[in-house]
Amino acid sequence: MSFNKEFIFGVATSSYQIEGGFDKGGRTPSIWDTFAKTKGKVVNFDNGDVACDHYNRYKEDVAIIKELGVDCYRLSIAWSRIFPEYGRYNSEGMKFYKDLLMELKQNGIKTAVTLYHWDLPQWLQDRGGWEERECADIFLQYAVKCFNELDDLTDMWITHNEPWCASFLSNALGEHAPGKKNITSALKAAHHILLSHGMAVREYRSLGCNKPIGITLNLSPAYPSSNSYADKLAASNADGFLNRWFLDPIFKGSYPFDMANLYAAHSLGFEFVKAGDFEIMMEKCDFLGINYYNRTLSKFDAESFMFSAGAESNYEKTDMGWDVSPDEFIDLIKMIRQNYTDLPIYITENGSAWTDIVEAGYVHDDKRTDYLVKHLKAVAKMNELGLDIAGYFCWSLLDNFEWAYGYTKRFGIVYVDFDTQERIKKDSFYRYQQIIRDRTV
Ligand code: FCB
Q1: Residue 179 C-alpha to ligand 1 middle, in angstroms?
Q2: Cβ contacts of residue 261 below 8 Å, gap of 6+?
Q3: What is the Cα–Cα distance from 435 to 3, expressed in whole angstroms?
Q4: Distance 352 CA to ligand 1 centre (A)
Q5: Cβ distance 33 to 371 under 8 Å?
Q6: 35 CB less than 6 Å from ligand 1?
Q7: What is the C-alpha to C-alpha distance for residues 313 and 332, in angstroms, rounded to an integer?
Q8: Residue 77: its pLDDT value, please?
Q9: Cβ of 171 less than 6 Å from ligand 1
Q10: Using one digit for the tens of pLDDT, what is the confidence trace for 373-409?
Q11: What angle do CA 207, 78, 192 make, to 5 degrees?
Q12: Using 50, 70 and 90 to split pLDDT, how confident is the model at 294?
């Protein structure tokens, strides 16, 4: 199965997961520094102080990206490098990204820059973070600074990465920074994140900039674990929780009422939704970014606030315990095309974690390679079906700090020895290189 010349092949990372240099160049802590340094939050008490030391080794990493042969590299900016304190701009922090983007440009690699991949400055969390509407205004100031300084060196912009994680996973489920367990906090955070997205897109256009700009959502199609009415309800609610709560406001201008009814007891009467907010959230983008890892299988659970829990399945599972589910990837994109949008879609992340073993200097990661091939075949199939996928970014270039799992989960197509910082290209790297070269999978 083949890909046309315009199809963008890419590879992705994010700032806190790879950079290290946590106190270099004037950077101040983000909520992830604080969270990771709070006992019991991250496996092995790992943190991103050093991570892949990309801050110092970015040239070596760009050379690896070049060797891979991708068209585009997706990275994110650490907000607290740019604004280490409220209202204080740090040109030294910006210089790191200018140098990095310049290095990529000189190597003929296009760039997709994400403004927010979860590392909120701690000073901003101290003001209330995403729960406060003010956070959207402060994000806008940060976004404008990045647009002004970096637009020439950037080929596409992503405002936010996975608002579901930055809101519900972080503020209701407590698994990510800032680690709150409060549905109201999550609802407010989600609202202000989506609002800030629309505000940034609007402002980007009014600055006269014209690179493609969009948002990245993590989406997972939900299926009932049986034919029972209760399990179907559970799947519908899981879909509302993960997918529709974000897709509906962006493309339909409203939160889905079935979910709003479930949240109403926690929503303070939705007083945080102001007149005109949905119009801002609906500001037209140039593309939709989708991160896809796995399907969701749901069963009814009376204890859960949304009456839904994950169900056991007999699918093959990655090291994260996630179902390997490439067919459902196709279902998801069909659903998006049917219910939401004809904007170009980029798969801005897809990949898998497995236990890797270094043998005589090689990593024979057959399972990761197999996952990659299956999902790229699914993407090629989508394009055959006319579903218009414009590009695919593999997660991730390097093994890195996998959030609450620390360094225990490896998603890289390049192995990182975290003691020596040695990089070893895995078999999946070479397979992806070949797919890109041949434009065929
Ligand atoms: C996504 C995140 C990314 C990475 C992968 C495995 O949810 O965007 O940073 O952690 O999962």
Answers
A1: 17
A2: none
A3: 9
A4: 10
A5: no
A6: no
A7: 19
A8: 99
A9: no
A10: 999 999 999 999 999 999 999 999 999 999 999 999 9
A11: 65
A12: very high
Residue 1 Cα, ligand 1 centroid: separation in angstroms? 27
* Helix (H), strand (E), coil (C) string for 25-84: CCCCCEHHHHHHCCCCCCHHHCCCCCCCCHHHHHHHHHHHHHHHCCCEEEEECCHHHHCC
Given 19, 103, 149, 162, the catalytic residue:
162
**Catalytic residue at 328?**
no
| Any atom of ligand 1 within 6 Å of the Cβ of 291 | yes
**Cβ 124 under 6 angstroms from ligand 1:** no
Decide the pairing of beta strands 296-300 and 308-310: antiparallel
Give the number of the atom of ligand 1 that is nearest the alpha carbon of residue 353.
6
CATH architecture of 8-438: Alpha-Beta Barrel (3.20)
Q: Cα-Cα-Cα-Cα dihedral of 317, 318, 321, 325, to 10°?
A: -50
User: Ligand 1 in contact with 348 (CB < 6 A)?
Assistant: no
Please count the residues of the chain.
441
Looking at the chain, the whole-number percentage of residues with pLDDT higher than 90 is 100
- Measured distance CA(216)–CA(42) in Å, rounded: 25
Tell me the per-residue pLDDT of 83-119, one tens digit each, with 9 for 90 and over: 999 999 999 999 999 999 999 999 999 999 999 999 9
